[in-house]
Structure formats: structure tokens, C-alpha cells
Design brief:
2 strands; 1 helix
């Protein structure tokens, strides 16, 4: 197990294996990018842990209980765009 910190500034008083500092609004990072910096490490951790456990993150429901198909959406040929 590793303890990883993702923060706008260094975390004091906590011993971390990795400390990812991305700045934040006070450091000039645009607000829309702060969410990406916060969420991306967790998404990557979830992906790699799922793969380590033998799960298929791109096919979460082998039984078909969960579907990514949305009805009523038309996909146009890119030559028409």
C-alpha cells in the first residue's frame, strides 16, 4: 500500500509515499483544471486496481445489466460534417 497526496500545496504533518502538488487557483491554475488534477489520479488508480483484480473496466457488466448504449442517438458519417 502507498499513501499518495494530491493537493494544491504541500501537506505538512503527514508522511506520504508520493505528494503531487498542482498549484490550484491561488497559484494561477484555472478553476476548470483543478478538478482534473484532483480526479485524474483517482481515476487512474481505479483503472489499474480493476485490471489488477482481473476486472474489465471497459465492459463493467458481463450480464448486460449495465449498458452504455443510448437510444435515439444518430451517428453521422464524418464526411457529411
Amino acid at each position: 500500500m502507498k499513501l499518495i497526496g494530491v493537493a494544491e500545496s504541500p501537506v505538512n504533518g503527514v508522511e506520504l509515499d508520493a505528494n503531487i502538488i498542482f498549484g490550484g487557483p491561488a497559484a494561477g491554475t484555472d478553476e476548470e483544471f483543478v478538478a482534473i488534477c484532483s480526479v485524474l489520479p483517482a481515476q487512474m488508480l481505479g483503472l489499474f486496481k480493476s485490471m489488477e483484480l482481473g476486472l474489465q473496466p471497459d465492459n463493467p457488466s458481463v450480464t448486460g445489466a449495465i449498458s452504455r448504449v443510448v437510444e435515439g442517438v444518430v451517428i453521422y458519417d464524418d464526411e457529411l460534417a
